[in-house]
């Protein structure tokens, strides 16, 4: 009897984890205020998102007594010390908000925004991005690196695409930025980003082809040069299965498993009580 109950409890846990894949809950340890000195010792970053009165207002100060404010830093949502990457003199900084599902990298010179990027600018395949209640997982956390000697910031996406940015301008010096105005809704997968930043107007294709059944590739001539197209069963390759289809299947399976486990647990309890009374 005990083994049966333990087995059912284990199934409940597995089912909960399956459902958790669909909507991951977020829990955060509230950030504590702190003072961080710049690498060259000239400035201090007062990290004070909750406006603790025992600390200076959140911003960068000249490192002297008393502190002299250079510029304030203010964002309208929960932020963490690990979201900030400062140059050696704190003149420039990169802000990567933990809590964000769209605009995810900001480059600042003081309090002036130089450049910012959204997930569709950096991710080619949307189904490589997973969402929790308040976050988007699209890059390798350990890949974040600020080179204070060369003033570059590096990050690698889950597609293994590496971007290197010039911290003093916010421009990408390695990696191709996708030029798109599409806004991704985490709960609506009808939009798909381009697989490359180079797009070709269908009217440019000057050849018509008939393809036999079977996968392969074909080279089309266009005024801008040759274009390689993947062909499957007579049509241009269809996009990958949208992420929501995979998620919906996982959700349905999770709900079915959970329902079966609950029903089994109820039956076991009823049988157990009946036998106990009979004894």
Total individual domains: 1
List low-pLDDT spans. Answer: 2-23, 191-214, 232-239
| Silhouette | elongated
Largest sheet: 4 strands, antiparallel
If you compute it from the alpha carbons, what radius of gyration comes out, rounded to the nearest whole angstrom? 27 Å
Count of separate DSSP helical elements? 3
- Count of beta strands: 17
Beta-strand content estimate: 25-35%
Please report the distance between the alpha carbons of the first and last residues.
15 Å
Notes on the structure:
The chain has 279 residues and is α+β, with helices and mostly antiparallel strands. It has one domain. The protein contains 3 helices and 17 strands. The strands form 5 sheets. It has a 4-stranded antiparallel beta sheet with strand order 1-2-3-4, with no helix packed on it. Strands 5-6-7-8 form a 4-stranded antiparallel beta sheet. Helix 1 runs antiparallel to helix 3.
Give the arrangement of secondary structure elements.
Elements: H1 2-20, E1 34-37, E2 43-47, E3 59-62, E4 68-72, E5 84-86, E6 92-95, E7 103-109, E8 112-118, H2 119-122, E9 130-131, E10 136-137, E11 145-147, E12 152-156, E13 162-166, E14 172-174, E15 216-222, E16 225-232, E17 235-236, H3 243-278
Helix pairs in contact: 1-3
Defining traits:
279 residues, alpha+beta, four-stranded antiparallel beta sheet, elongated
């Amino acid at each position: 009897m005990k083994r049966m109950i333990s087995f059912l409890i284990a199934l409940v846990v597995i089912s909960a984890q399956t459902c958790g894949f669909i909507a991951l809950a977020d829990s955060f340890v509230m950030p504590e205020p702190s003072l961080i000195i710049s690498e060259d010792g000239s400035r201090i970053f007062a990290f004070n998102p909750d406006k603790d009165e025992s600390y200076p207002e959140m911003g960068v100060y000249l490192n002297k007594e008393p502190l002299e404010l250079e510029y304030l830093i203010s964002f309208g949502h929960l932020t963490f010390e690990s979201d900030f990457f400062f140059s050696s003199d704190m003149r420039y900084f990169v802000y990567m908000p933990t809590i964000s599902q769209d605009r995810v990298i900001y480059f600042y010179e003081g309090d002036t925004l130089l450049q910012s990027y959204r997930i569709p600018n950096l991710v080619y395949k949307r189904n490589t991005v997973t969402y929790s209640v308040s976050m988007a997982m699209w890059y390798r956390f350990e890949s974040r690196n600020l080179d204070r000697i060369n003033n570059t910031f590096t990050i690698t996406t889950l597609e293994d695409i590496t971007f290197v940015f010039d911290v003093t301008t916010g421009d990408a010096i390695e990696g191709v930025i996708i030029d798109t105005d599409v806004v991704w809704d985490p709960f609506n997968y009808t939009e798909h980003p381009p697989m490359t930043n180079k797009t070709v107007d269908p009217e440019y294709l000057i050849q018509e082809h008939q393809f036999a059944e079977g996968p392969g590739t074909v080279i089309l001539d266009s005024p801008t040069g040759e274009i390689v197209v993947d062909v499957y069963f007579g049509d241009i390759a269809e996009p990958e299965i949208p992420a929501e289809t995979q998620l919906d299947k996982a959700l349905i399976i999770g709900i079915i498993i959970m329902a079966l486990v609950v029903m089994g647990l109820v039956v076991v309890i009823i049988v157990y009580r009946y036998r106990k009374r009979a004894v």
